[in-house]
Write a structure and sequence with these properties.
Radius of gyration: 26 Å
Structural class: alpha/beta
Distance between the termini: 18 Å
Order of helices and strands: EHHEEHHHHHHEEHEHEHEEE
Shape: elongated
Number of helices: 11
Length: 351
């Protein structure tokens, strides 16, 4: 399984869309911290938690349980102010100078840098614990050559000849040598590999994968041999692979996009041509992050989120990588705009 490992010496060869320290553009996220909340702030100044005028929230008197104080503030604000998604937040989400719509991490607004750090730390720990779960492996029940002999697509002698060619060359895919000796065509080899994986063979001719480059970073398409083909009914993303499926990548894209991902194989020559065209298309900007520990990872990602102020952001694991995606503007439809996406990739192999 190919892994992403970006050392210092490799940075000069990074694709053009990879930036070491990109300056995130200003977002157009709505900031309603002006007059719209001034009246609410005044009401809080006039009444304390127990409803007595002129008493501050931190004033004297018998303390009230946190739940009662929070409930009273909910009634005062009437739902006008979003509540911090950090369950351990102790600021009571009354930061009127803070943007009301961003930053958002995994669907929840963060009222402060400290709360952003807390939520990102929890997400990093969650994703790192999921490493090595064993869900990324797949064992074929029948070797490819035996499967094709069993179905009568090739003879035993043709299989032995192809294996000899493979050994003499020092490697190579068995299907390649079967096609080269004329024992079988490429389409049938793809069908046989699809039978091994128990997946369909997908067509590319009627689709434009170049229009789906916003579905994942360019580095993942290149390293893991994937190709997004089409989105059906705004709910299903068809993801093509050349040689073998990658369940870990498919699951990560499904979690990140919210779409159901259906994986399948694409005929070799067709895949290579479409893959090359897609890699040359525009992709979202990406930043590579290096850190030595989980707390350092969380700190780096939190700073990036606080700088970009996304209207939404999510973190998922892909093999030995952590993938943070930030949406700078609210999206219309299931395919995001390339310019509205910022990706951050941390290579977690050494963590």
């Amino acid at each position: 399984m190919p892994l992403l490992a970006f050392g210092t010496s490799d940075r000069k060869n990074l694709p053009e869309n990879v930036e070491r320290q990109p300056q995130w553009p200003e977002t157009n996220a709505e900031d309603t911290s002006g007059s719209g909340f001034a009246a609410v702030e005044g009401r809080l100044d006039e009444a304390s938690d127990d409803g007595q005028p002129g008493r501050s929230q931190s004033g004297g008197g018998d303390p009230q349980p946190d739940g009662m104080r929070t409930g009273h503030r909910d009634r005062l604000l009437g739902g006008l102010v979003p509540r911090c998604a950090n369950v351990r937040c102790d600021s009571v989400w009354l930061r009127f100078w803070r943007r009301r719509r961003s930053p958002v991490f995994e669907g929840g607004w963060c009222c402060s840098e400290r709360c952003t750090r807390a939520m990102v730390t929890e997400a990093v720990s969650r994703e790192m614990r999921a490493r090595g779960s064993g869900t990324e492996r797949h064992r074929h029940r029948i070797p490819l050559g035996l499967l094709m002999v069993e179905r009568g697509w090739i003879s035993g002698k043709q299989l032995q000849d192809a294996l000899k060619m493979q050994r003499s060359a020092g490697g190579g895919r068995l299907g390649h040598w079967l096609v080269r000796q004329g024992a079988i065509d490429e389409t049938t080899v793809t069908r046989a590999v699809g039978s091994q994986w128990g997946c369909p063979v997908l067509a590319v001719e009627s689709y434009t994968p170049e229009g789906l480059t916003s579905m994942m970073p360019r580095l993942f398409l290149d390293a893991f041999g994937a190709l997004p083909l089409r989105v059906a009914a705004g709910k299903i993303l068809y993801l093509g692979f050349e040689e073998r499926l990658d369940p870990a990548l498919a699951l990560a894209v499904e979690r990140m996009s919210g779409l159901k991902v259906e994986s399948g194989l694409v005929q070799d020559s067709v895949f290579r041509a479409a893959h090359a065209r897609t890699l040359n298309a525009p992709f979202p900007r990406v930043k590579l992050v290096e850190a030595a520990s989980e707390p350092a990872i969380a700190a780096a990602l939190s700073r990036i989120i606080e700088q970009a102020l996304p209207v939404d952001s999510r973190l998922v694991r892909v093999h030995d990588c952590l993938w943070l995606r930030m949406w700078l503007r609210r999206q219309q439809g299931s395919i995001p705009d390339v310019e509205d996406i910022r990706d951050v990739i941390y290579t977690a192999g050494g963590a």
